[in-house]
Amino acid sequence: MEYKIWTRKFWMALNPDAGNSTLRFATLENGKSILEMVGTVDGRGVLLRWLNDERGVVTVRSTPYDAPQEHLDGEETHVTAHDDPAVFAARARELVLAIA
Question: What is the 3-state secondary structure (H, E, C) of the chain?
Fold first, then answer.
């Protein structure tokens, strides 16, 4: 599954607060470009960053994510474009509940 489709299905399954998430493309100070999508679930930050066309990482933390940053903090789960996005959305939701 292409990463763009995976991203859409992941966020639909995750159902972020108010149905909102933000797609961000940024170039960091070190010159590295990143593509990520951020949102909140129960007020906690959830971020999906694609490392390349096949591999990504989902992170969850107690506070919403601000501006793009090189190093991610929070509980990380690695994903691939071939994984089931609904499974990883459920895992992210479990991590959000565990933070409470």
Answer: CCHHHHHHHHHHHHCCHHHCEEEEEEECCCCCEEEEEEEEECCEEEEEEECCCCEEEEEEECCCCCCCCCCCCCEEEEEECCCCHHHHHHHHHHHHHHHC
Backbone angles phi, psi at 10, to 5 degrees: -60, -50
46 forms beta bridges with 39, 60
What is the structure's pLDDT at 79? 96
Please provide residue 67's backbone torsions phi and psi, each rounded to the nearest 5 degrees: -60, 150
Q: Residue 99 and residue 8: Cα distance in Å, rounded? A: 25
The two three-digit tokens of residue 93, written as one number: 């939701």
Q: What is the pLDDT of residues 33-44, one digit of tens each?
A: 999 999 999 999
Strand partners, 41: 44
Taking the whole predicted model, whether its pTM rises above 0.90 is answered as: yes
At residue 65, the pLDDT reads 93
